[in-house]
Every structure is written in structure tokens, then in C-alpha cells.
UniProtKB/TrEMBL annotation, chains A, B:
It comes from Neotabrizicola shimadae. Residues 3-200 form the NAD-dependent epimerase/dehydratase domain. It comes from the Bacteria. Pfam families: Epimerase (PF01370). This is SDR family oxidoreductase. One of its GO terms (molecular function) is oxidoreductase activity. SUPFAM superfamilies: NAD(P)-binding Rossmann-fold domains. Keywords: Carbohydrate metabolism, NADP.
Length: 324, 324
């Protein structure tokens, strides 16, 4: 079996590549692995044939290079992120919509080829106003170009799957927490930062109220979503192959309690409250919780308590893991 | 004011062109009119400058030709119809999605230009299972490539409007009844045929049960939707600029009763019942009724009784109108 991971240089993409290389997919061995991103992504230990490709997804030859190994499973995680897609209209549509269209076209033009296509979508397909817990039949209403591009791609995945051109599904990821690495400028960055930085003995800024609630899953859960989506029986999905992934609805206060239980009050004291009305307003527009009943019934699993999310970070990602 | 009607050769497009030529838009005079379709559409009596263009919407120069008069109002009714979009994947996407994208791109690339863009969408954006009356917040779920293309264009209209690149809205039309002219092969054709043919003294075939219910508006109502959409204050729409138009939910039995009341039992006797399981199954997948509360609150109006629909046909479209 040949597997393509598009966006294999990103945080989730790297973890997914390592997991596929180490354990195969659904108990099946993987013989070939194509890892692609804007620059050639890191290659995990893997006994089979592996190809690391750095490419511009909008280039005319991108589809043929990506599909060269005729991968049976395609994980598509490559995207211009939300902020950039909003700042640069053309680039967002070129990468997040048109490049995916061309890839899908190349697939359907290949005779006898109908790969499993797992598309990384986002809860950004939803927009205010929200109920407190968003049910699976809630109508998507993107309020950003990024969310629009994700939803349009979901619709293409549905239509091409219905027509038997691909065997696709779209998985809408929660906010991933705790993101390893350095703090970034994303409006959502503090959700990880107020845990990650104090765990390393560093100060962190909390720009919103403790009562702010949001929807989370760990990087490990996210990798699990992709692996499960790769082998799921799609006949159970019907016409709507977009699934809101399960996650954990937690408040900032619950995050802080988890931190306290693991690292004590000294760690909590490193969180500095600096209310930022701009960030507060952005976050106020985000969903707080999803039912995700369909995905759970189909076997997708996420954490149920915030201290699990914290322990996963300590086990897998914290920079001092080797020193613990 | 300059007005562009794209799809001006179609049944609704021709009526819309005549209405705009005769009465202007929202009490404002129209000085220039660009009428475009695959072949140059008929030109109604009009005192101002009128241009009738026959063009392939997918041609590279189509946007510049269409936007030459820098129309303040654009009515976009051009489309590959449902059956053809399903039969020819490439052509459906090329016309119904890509050509519209290029037109929208040309608009946003024109400095200082932000026209009203009224897009003809369809209730084909919805798919089973349906509640008996579909509320405005019901999640679209297209089950055809045509419906997918219409919904994707709605999302583009929303996103470009949100970004101030156009001032757009999408109006989801009911099934138009009574369609004038010859019978066609569309699965929905009988809804018009069982009235139109007997009114002309001709036999008609009814392939489904009398209890089948569907969602209708007259051609006159459809033209009214477009004219109202052209001047509506879009600030009231919020982020979702797609509106399900009002209509009339009626059963086949109610259609037949309206026919009887206008043309008597002799006309009704011209309807031959020939159950067709294929058509019955297709029609079974269609919505029966919509609440359309948002559109009604915004001033869109349709018929409330089927005999109105019948009278409108007799007044405006029946071939023997001049002889009556």
C-alpha cells in the first residue's frame, strides 16, 4: 500500500507520517510513502520506499508528482492558514481551493484509480450565532475565506465521492492543544501557550477571561482521527462525508486547573492576565462545543478530560521529555 | 444605470430583460443593457443602449466583454442545467463554477467597482432527508453536481460580499410553473405539462401520484424576485446572503383542481396517468415545502394559490393569449 501525506511538514503532518511509518494503516503494512510540503518534509524511520517532496502545490506538475506512486490513501493536510488566507485572497483560493481541485481532477482522470482521500477540514466552516453545543446537522456558515475554502472543498469531496471518482471524507478538526514549539501570533495561540510556557518555567500571557470555553483535541487524537478515517467504511456516511471530529469542551479555568494539578501553583503563577479586547472579540466568534455524535458513533475518539491533553504533551512533546 | 443579464436567452432571462427594459429597476431608469447568453439573446423594446452578446462563458475574454459597460447590477442566470451537469462533469464545473469564478475575479480586479450581483441559485442545494416544511436554517446538502456548483457559488458570493468585493446575494428559486413552450425531458416537466398541454387541448402524461407535493412559483414571481433582489438593502442579510425564495407548496391534486376550475373536466380528462417509477423516485428526492420566512420578511413575494399560477400563464404565456 502506498500512502501520500500532503502537508507532511506541519505539526500534525509530521506526527502522522511517523505513525504511518511505524505502524502502517489499520493493521496493513505500508510499502511506499510520499511526504510532501512546501519544503521537503523530514523523513521518519521507515523500511519501505519513501519520497520527500518539496513543491509548490499550485505548480502545474504538482498533481502528477504527488500521484506518481498512485497512492491508495491520500491525507490532504496542506493549507494556507486562516490568517494568511484572510490577508491574501488570491493565495488562499489558489492553494486551498484551486490546487486541491487540480489534484482531484488528476485523480479522476486516472483510469481505474479511486483512492481514499482524507481531507483536513476545520470547525472554521461554522459561524455565529451558535447554540451552546453545536449539533451535527447545524448548517455551516463560514465567516472567513479560509472557512469558505474548507467548506467548498468538503462539497467537492462529497460530490466526487458520490460519483465514485474518489472515496473521500472530510474531518473537521478541533483546535489542537497543546501545540508544541514556540509561541506564535495566532489568535488561538494562548490556549496552548498558557500551559506550554509555564510547564517550561516560562511566563505566559492570558488575553481573555477564565470563562472562555473552546473545543480541543490533542495532537495524538488528531493523528488518530486521520488513521481512523483512512480505513473507515465510508458506506456508513451517506451523502455527507464531512464529519465534525469529537473533542473536549473546556474553559480556560479548566485548562489552568489541569496545569495546577500537574505542575503546581508555581506554574499557574507564571500566567499573566493581560486582557486583549481584539483577541477577546475574535475568540468570542468561535464555537464552544460540538455534539460530534456521528463521528463518535463511527469510532473517532478524543480526550475527555483536560489533564489527559496535558499528560499527552508531557509524554510526547515537551522539550524536556528526555530529562524527565 | 447599466444592467447585465447573463442567461438572458433563457425563459426567465428573457422575461427579466423585458421587465428591466420596460420599467427600469426599483423606480430608477436603466440607460444601458447588456444581454448575454450562449447565442445572442432577443432584444426587447428599449430606448437606451442595448448590447446582445452571444458568447461562451468559459472563454478567456468572456468577463471583459460582459463587464465592458461596467454594469452596476448583474443578474447571473446562466447555467448548465441539472441533467447536463450530472451527465458531463467537466462542462458542469467549467460553466457553473469556473466561469463564475473568473467573472467574480474580473469584478474584484476592477478598481472601485462593487456591483450588485444577483445569483440565480436553486433549491437543488438541499438534499434528503427533509422535514415536511424546510426551515431557513436547514443545512444544505446537495445530492447532484448541479446543486454542489450552485452551493459553492453561494459560498463565493457570501465571501466576496463579506470582503466588500461585490454586493451580492443568491436567490434559491422554486420550480417554475407553468413553463411556457414545448414539453421537455426534464423529470420536473410534468408539473407544467399537466396544465399547459390540456389548456391547449392536448393530452398530457402524469407519471407520479396525485399526492406528490412540490414547491412552485410562477415565471412572473421569479422575475419579481430578481427585480427585488437588485435593490434590496443587503445590510439586513448578515453573513448569509443566500435566500430561499417564497413559493407555493402544492400537490398534483391541487394542480388538477386548479385546472378543473379554469378549464373544466374536459381539460382534466386530457391527463393520462402513466406511473413511471424512475421519475417517481427522482421526484421523491425533492423538497416539498419551505418556510422561506427570511425572504418573505425581506419583501419577496410569490403566489399563494395554484389558480393564480394558472391565471398568470393564461394572461402572459399561453400560446392562444392573443386569441382569447
Amino acid at each position: 500500500m502506498h500512502v501520500l501525506i500532503l502537508g507532511a511538514g506541519g505539526m500534525i503532518g509530521r506526527k502522522l507520517a511517523s505513525a504511518v511509518a511505524a505502524q502502517g494503516i489499520g493493521g496493513q503494512p505500508v510499502s511506499g510513502l510520499t511526504l510532501a510540503d512546501v519544503t521537503a518534509p523530514p523523513v521518519p524511520a521507515f523500511p519501505g520506499a519513501v519520497q520527500a517532496i518539496g513543491l509548490d502545490l499550485t505548480a502545474a506538475d504538482a498533481p502528477s508528482r504527488l500521484l506518481d506512486g498512485r497512492p491508495e490513501i491520500i491525507f490532504h493536510l496542506a493549507a494556507i492558514v486562516s490568517g494568511e488566507a484572510e490577508a491574501d485572497f488570491d493565495r488562499g483560493y489558489a492553494v486551498n481551493l484551486d490546487a486541491t481541485r487540480r489534484l482531484l481532477d488528476a485523480i479522476r482522470m486516472t483510469p481505474g484509480y479511486r483512492p481514499r482521500f482524507v481531507f483536513a477540514s476545520s470547525i472554521a466552516v461554522f459561524g455565529r450565532p451558535f447554540p451552546e453545543v453545536i449539533p451535527d446537522d447545524f448548517a455551516p456558515q463560514p465567516l472567513t475565506s479560509y472557512g469558505t475554502q474548507k467548506l467548498i472543498t468538503e462539497l467537492l469531496v462529497n460530490d466526487l465521492s458520490r460519483r465514485g471518482m474518489i472515496d473521500g471524507l472530510s474531518i473537521r478538526l478541533p483546535t489542537i492543544c497543546i501545540r508544541p514549539g514556540a509561541p506564535n501570533k495566532a489568535a488561538s495561540g494562548f490556549f496552548s501557550g498558557i500551559l506550554r510556557e509555564p510547564l517550561a518555567g516560562l511566563p505566559a500571557v492570558l488575553p481573555v477571561a477564565d470563562t472562555v470555553k473552546h473545543w480541543f483535541a490533542s495532537p495524538r487524537a488528531a493523528v488518530g482521527f486521520f488513521l481512523h478515517a483512512a480505513t473507515l467504511d465510508t458506506a456508513a456516511l451517506g451523502a455527507n462525508r464531512a464529519l465534525t471530529m469529537p473533542g473536549l469542551a473546556a474553559t480556560v479555568a479548566e485548562e489552568i486547573e489541569a496545569l495546577r494539578s500537574v505542575a503546581g501553583q508555581a506554574a499557574v503563577d507564571l500566567i499573566r492576565r493581560e486582557p486583549d479586547p481584539v483577541i477577546a472579540r475574535i475568540v468570542d466568534g468561535w464555537p464552544q462545543a460540538f455534539a460530534a455524535d456521528r463521528a463518535r458513533a463511527l469510532g473517532f475518539q478524543a480526550e475527555t478530560r483536560f489533564d489527559e491533553i496535558l499528560q499527552i504533551y508531557l509524554t510526547e512533546d515537551a522539550p524536556s521529555v528526555s530529562a524527565r
